[in-house]
Amino acid sequence: MIIGNGGIALELVYEIEGCEVIWVIKDTAIGNTFFDAGAAEFLTSKLIAEKSEAKIAQKRTRYTTEGRKKEAQTKGNAGNIGSALGPDWHEGLNLKGTKEFSHKIHIETMCEVKKIYLQEEFRISKKKSLTFPRDHHNQSVTTDKEIWPVYVELTNGKIYGCNFIVSATGVTPNTGPFLCGNNFDVGEDGGLKVNDHMHTSLPDIYAAGDICTASWEPSPVWQQMRLWTQARQMGWYAAKCMAAASVGESVDMDFSFELFAHVTKFFNYKVVLLGKYNAQGLGSDHELILRCTKGQEYIKAVLQNGRMMGAVLIGETDLEETFENLILNQMNLSAYGEDLLDPNIDIEDYFD
Fold first, then answer.
1. Which of 1, 87, 99, 200 has the fewest CB atoms nearer than 10 Å to its CB?
2. Could you tell me the strand order of the sheet in which 261-266 lies?
3. pTM of the full predicted structure?
4. Angle between the 7-15 and 37-48 helix axes, to the nearest 10 degrees?
5. pLDDT one-digit tens code per residue, 230-257
6. pLDDT tens sequence across 263-319
7. Beta-carbon neighbour count of residue 54 at 10 Å?
8. CA-CA distance, 274 to 15, in Å (whole number)?
């Protein structure tokens, strides 16, 4: 059972093969952190597909920990924890089960975990668990006769037995070790407030990544999200600011904070999120232009007053550089209307 609807859950659900997976999400659609309902529907069709496919090539730096491969082969080192930086965290793990199928996933929406029972606790409770749902259309439920190591009761009243539970319910700033005895300014989300040089409210103390809350006036097309890419950018920039401060120099705000950009892979699709990709903070005063080719690509452009404010690109669209430039230069696109995403017009070449 996988609990959560963020990046880790999205990756795991697809990467685990040969194993029945129950995915518990508190939202109506998958990937709510990143996608609207349309993109979620586009991706869900990939989950239902039985056939395993060739993994897309990675064109980025890979992160591993020293000696990881040797550790992965030694069962005695199973307790060792490796690097969690970036989407390579599961590289050393074997995520293939014993079953012959590729994916078999059942999604429980609009619910959370109510209670977890160990095997003996569940036996004493005299409650009944459900079998893995075999058919999306057939809603009849049957009691599970199999005995499982752990059982999960959901807030929708259903109980499932499983081998293990993965909790992937999001990120909370881990400020605990630093707050005691110190007078940090703390943001509403619990992070340490930092200014535009990653400096906290205490002298000579800097913070970056999940632990901090960006408290400067952000660019209109940037927002903080607790993602590995942003943590890396913040860490790099914080080091630069610290080095400059130590010799009495000042540095300009790093370019990576001009435009929100996150590139990753979900369900074997390349995924690029740019700017206000879900119209965050734009209110109702915006329009969406969509293009979708089932099984191939999903493109969404977010426009406000004729200017592009954000975009979601799923699949090999080759539009990320063009859209990045259109968001940054704020060119008025009103004249193009829906033709902006016309597949017969090579906008990449047009706006080059």
1. 99
2. 261-266, 269-275, 307-314, 297-304, 287-293
3. 0.85
4. 20
5. 999 999 999 999 999 999 998 999 999 9
6. 988 998 999 999 999 999 898 889 999 999 988 999 999 999 999 999 999 999 999
7. 6
8. 25
